[in-house]
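Subject: Sanity check before I submit

Could someone independently write out the structure tokens for this chain? I want to compare against mine line by line before I put it in a report. The sequence has 440 residues.
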Amino acid sequence: MKKLYIETLGCQMNKSDSERIAGILSDFGYVETTVEKEADLLIINTCSIRQLSADKAYSKLGVWGKWKKTRPELKIGICGCVAQQDKEKVRQRAPYVDLVFGTHNIYELPSLIKRIEEDEKVCSITTKPIVCNQNDFKIIRKDSVNAWIPIIEGCNNFCTYCVVPFTRGRERSRAPEEIIQEAKNIIKDGFKEITLLGQNVDSYGKDTNSPDITLANLLRELNKLDGEFRIRFVTSYPSDITDDLIDAVDECDKVCKYFHIPMQSGNSRILSEMNRRYTKEEYYTIVSKIRNRFANVAITSDFIAGFPGETEEEFIDTLKAIDELELDYSNTAAYSPRVFTKAGKMTDKFLSEEVKYERLERLNEKNREASLKSNEKFVGRILNVLVESKTIKDGKVVLNSRADNNKIVHFEDSSKNVGDFVNIKITKAQTWCLFGNPVD
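---
Independent answer below. Compare away.
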């Protein structure tokens, strides 16, 4: 038995990729371990969306490289977006690495692993993905309740700050029948929540040139499947949210009333500089449509502080947008220059680190205010939640759950189990979570 340790940085797509990597390697006798020093094969699955993430990857490789000096038989691999982006540069910085493979090469692993086991140093980076039916490969899912299904990978938008089109390539949709079969397998295995993944999930089907292959229609087909489960989808691009998609979410009882819609800036000039394909006003219209349709809906977003050339007044527009849109929560980050991107070349417009992080601090404070205000709205309401885990606190069983609208809800009930759906009346709100009691 050989032991495998995978460290995953970044988004849900990376986490899903790691589950697939673990599944493929299990066919070669590798069993996952949570203890790094026990492993015979160490793999770091990387993210390059910000420099901090890339730095973490190289730091981890440095630690593993020291271990290899006393354990020369130890195998080390790197994959994901840093591997795709840096290619041979990885080998220059970490020559002890045995395996480098890109975002398009996961399904080439059966041949790659054989080569490194024969003590060959391997670097496999391609610009086109390996064509295959992903259902032909085993997946080892770590969560007992939630399962991810990538339905589209890549991005065609070329936002000026984003490296994804260079690391993940252009948009590529999976066949609907392949996705539906994977969903059936997930339901059969007892999972209670399916999250459909894509860098631009609501662009699903556009590259097929078939008017019938859309995210809205895929949701309708998945909603027909037998079983007690629910469906989410992330991440949405604002101008790709169609009326038909909103209709589908409304029609489908298993689809969560939750939208994650990155805005990135509350100022239209900055949105244009970012090459986002909508204005502030158009984003407001989309949010208004959704809020007018659903009672308990939650809308979350992403924002960047300190984009090149952003003025103080333009940054304040972002703070105002969070209030005016009544956003439930937002992921936040200071602008980080990325290789290949247009904004990364705007060096004459770069803001100082001091200004960027001062704005990020204010953005985070606004986010905390918005999250608490949003949670307080749900006190007295009843939310349907899925129990994800349980803990013991002061001798009592506390169930940690997630509502249909993605709110975290804690409640006490020793009769409920992980995987149960429960109606909870909300009694208390804190900044990041809700508390309540079960009701019939």
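---
OP: Matches mine. For the report I'm noting this point. The two ends are 49 Å apart (CA to CA).
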